[in-house]
Design a protein that fits this description.
30% of the residues lie in helices and 25% in strands. It has 513 residues and is of the alpha/beta class. It folds into 3 domains: 153 residues, ANL, N-terminal domain (Rossmann fold), CATH 3.40.50; 168 residues, Rossmann fold (3-Layer(aba) Sandwich); 97 residues, GMP Synthetase, Chain A, domain 3 (2-Layer Sandwich). The strands form 6 sheets. Strands 2-1-11-10-12-13-14-15 form an 8-stranded mixed β-sheet, sandwiched between helices. Helix 2 crosses helix 3 and helix 7 crosses helix 8.
């Protein structure tokens, strides 16, 4: 079989045509593998009729839905390159990505009519606009998705890409500077799917709850591996914590993925556990270190949280904690995935001793090909076959990795290294704390000092002194926060990562003498 991701769907449709492939929660639409593959073929042929050729970039600005998924596989079949767009971005940011990627086609939901109208007035490379509509009054410059695909053939198109041909360009969240386009190929994502399915407890016929937006690799990767494994995707259009446990009960969900912030919101909306969740085996959680108290809170409910570590640049996988170790080694993200090598190295690229902090580097056939049009950034990240992640971690004697923080977020106070995630983990154990982030602020005495930004739980009145005193028995003195700010919400990007840059701008310091 040729290494083309679109063939995953075609093969599944041949092997199990009547098996349920996709459930749309909000619209209660259900598609078999036969139906989903036929729809994918129609959008593939429609794009070919529009003149889309192998290597052309096709941008997608949509909420989660069947059209997103069928477009992904359809684009793959005809050898075009998908550019998933973060729908939380403003027109200036979207315009940059369209221009940087050279996208000539934009598929969009009617929810984004206003943003797309602004983009249409700008100088972008887009020449074809295709609108997925649940409402009328389409702009006159856009084709209607349903009309376009209704007249298209549903036969298999000619497969026009394989192996190292480009599959998608996924732009990083841009927590610092301009976003970079991470380039993945059919081969790299095939290996990402293989290593996920061969490492995680994924089973034929699983029902996977997809809550993350599909513009993120933490959603697109599991989608690919679910089709590869013959499972069912149960798709939420957008994350709604009040609906997660009802959906788990109604759809007999077996697995899912949620970032730590989502897990917190789900707990708060659990309604005292009135919904049946016996079908649920586990929830993966990644994008940020999962606080140990959160893992333990879910364990008390009988739900395993499997901490996963990965990057857009790895196609998703890097490390995964096993069910057996999820509690006994709570706080670890586990050893490397099956088809993955992970090392923790010092500044000279030498392996650090167990328990010492170093940079995470990763090797595997699922690593990105390059950063789009960024040769210098590519050369910095990819060295001698290894991806240098920029993340800091330690590793124990058994190969279990403990993520500490981003290299750029490390705080150096009086010559001592402080890892914000460790401090955040300590503070999050306080019963009155709903959320926390830790940053370094300038200090005339120490160079940098630790500042904690805290969200109180509703109805509580924890004070700055209360937080500082709580830390005194949990952290060495030099790690303890020297100042505490209380806010209503911690700024995060769509995947749940704390926007430390925003917090540093909001609370610039310096510390008082």
């Amino acid at each position: 079989m040729r290494e083309n991701l679109g063939l995953f769907l075609a093969k599944r449709a041949a092997l199990g045509p009547d098996r349920e492939a996709l459930v749309e929660v909000e619209r209660d639409r259900r598609f078999s593998y036969r139906e989903l593959n036929a729809r994918s073929n129609r959008i593939a042929h429609a794009l070919l009729e529009k003149g889309v050729a192998k290597g052309d970039r096709v941008a997608v600005l949509m909420m989660n839905g069947a059209e997103y998924i069928e477009t992904y596989f359809g684009i793959a079949k005809i050898g075009a390159v998908m550019v998933p767009l973060n729908w939380r971005l403003v027109p200036d940011e979207l315009s940059f990505i369209l221009g940087d990627s050279g996208s000539t086609v934009l598929l969009f939901d009617n929810e984004f009519d206003e943003s797309v109208a602004a983009l249409h007035e700008r100088d972008t490379p887009v020449t074809s606009w295709i609108r997925v509509a649940t409402a009328n009054d389409a702009p006159d410059f856009a084709d209607d998705y349903d009309t376009l695909t209704a007249s298209a053939r549903d036969t298999e198109p000619e497969i026009r890409a394989e192996g190292d041909d480009l599959l998608f360009i996924m732009y990083t969240s841009g927590t610092t500077g301009l976003p970079k386009g991470v380039v993945h190929t059919h081969t790299s994502m095939m290996w990402a799917s293989l290593t996920i399915n061969m490492t995680a407890d994924n089973r034929h016929g699983d029902r996977y709850l997809q809550m993350l937006p599909l513009f993120h690799v933490g959603a697109l990767g599991p989608l690919t591996s679910s089709v590869h494994r013959g499972g069912t995707i149960v798709l939420m259009r957008a994350f709604d914590p009040s609906q997660v446990f009802p959906v788990i009960e109604r759809e007999r969900i077996t697995t899912g993925l949620a970032v730590p912030a989502m897990l917190r919101f789900m707990l708060a909306a659990d309604n005292h556990g009135k919904h049946d969740r016996e079908s649920l085996r586990w929830i993966m959680s990644g994008a940020a270190p999962v606080p140990v108290p959160l893992i333990e809170a879910y364990a008390a409910l009988g739900i395993e949280i499997h901490q996963v570590y990965g990057l857009t640049e790895t196609g998703g996988p890097a490390c995964l904690i096993s069910p057996e170790a999820a509690i006994s080694r709570a706080g670890s993200t586990g050893p490397a995935f099956l088809h993955t090598d992970v090392r923790i190295v010092d500044e000279q690229g030498q392996d650090v001793a167990p328990g010492q902090i170093g940079e995470v580097i990763i090797r595997g056939r699922h690593i990105m090909k390059e950063y789009w049009n960024r040769p210098e950034a590519t050369a910095e990240a990819l060295r001698d076959g290894w991806l240098y992640s920029g993340d800091l971690a330690s590793i124990d004697e058994d190969g279990f990795v403990f993520i500490q923080d981003r290299k750029k977020d490390m705080i150096i106070s009086g010559g001592e290294n402080i890892y914000p995630a460790e401090v955040e983990n300590a503070i999050s154990a306080h019963p009155d704390v709903a959320d926390v982030a830790v940053i370094g602020v300038p200090s005339p005495k120490w160079g940098e000092s630790t500042a904690a930004i805290v969200v109180r739980k509703p109805g509580t009145e924890i004070t700055e002194d209360g937080i500082i005193q709580f830390c005194q028995t949990k952290l060495a003195r030099f790690k303890q926060p020297k100042i505490v700010h209380f806010v209503d919400e911690i700024p995060r990007n769509p995947t749940g990562k704390i926007l430390k840059r925003v917090l540093r701008d909001q609370f610039p310091g310096p510390m008082p003498q």
